[in-house]
Amino acid sequence: MTETRAAEQGGADDSWSVWMAAAQDGDNRSYERLLREITPYIRALVRQQHRSPDRADDVVQEVLLSIHRVRHTYDPGRPFKQWLTAIARRRSIDAVRRRIRENAVEIDAPLAYETYADPDANKDARASEAAEEIASALDALSPGQRQALELLKLKEMSLKEAAAITGQSEGSLKVGVHRAIKSLRARLAREGER
């Protein structure tokens, strides 16, 4: 490596370290600039293990999220690039392991669940079955839960508006919606197991 290139890389590492330290102190502009500057470096690291552009992009996003989650652990007295590289390599390895596990159990047979070769042939049947299951699950709710769910989630009213219509308190409406959703999930899960 030439001295000029080493100096450039050292300069980037110094800048990144300064920006990360500023970000740790709450400077959002420094944090945004840091993320913009390190993304091509992360992408280059990730592409060493992932040739698929989609998979590489997914891993880059995972790395950026990891950096965001653990940014408080960075020590400004240490080289930033080493810290960043360690995170990128770990996320990249995690993705490789995940792909190996998925490939071991997944079988790609897109037509195995088709009744007809035409992909649109089964849409209406599946949609009407789903609509029937949802209608049946809604009918099983108590009248108060059904009303709270319809007003707050389906008609997208505010708590205040729904409380004025029903005469219930905002708290009881929240509880009603929570219980309705919980009941619907449980019932639909049981239907899905059949």
TrEMBL record:
Transcription regulation among keywords: yes
Q: What protein name applies here? A: RNA polymerase sigma factor
- Any single biological process term in GO: DNA-templated transcription initiation
One short Pfam name that applies is Sigma70_r2
Q: Which residues form the RNA polymerase sigma factor 70 region 4 type domain?
A: 132-184
A GO molecular function term, named singly, is: sigma factor activity
Q: Which gene encodes it?
A: SigD
DNA-binding: is it a keyword of this entry?
yes
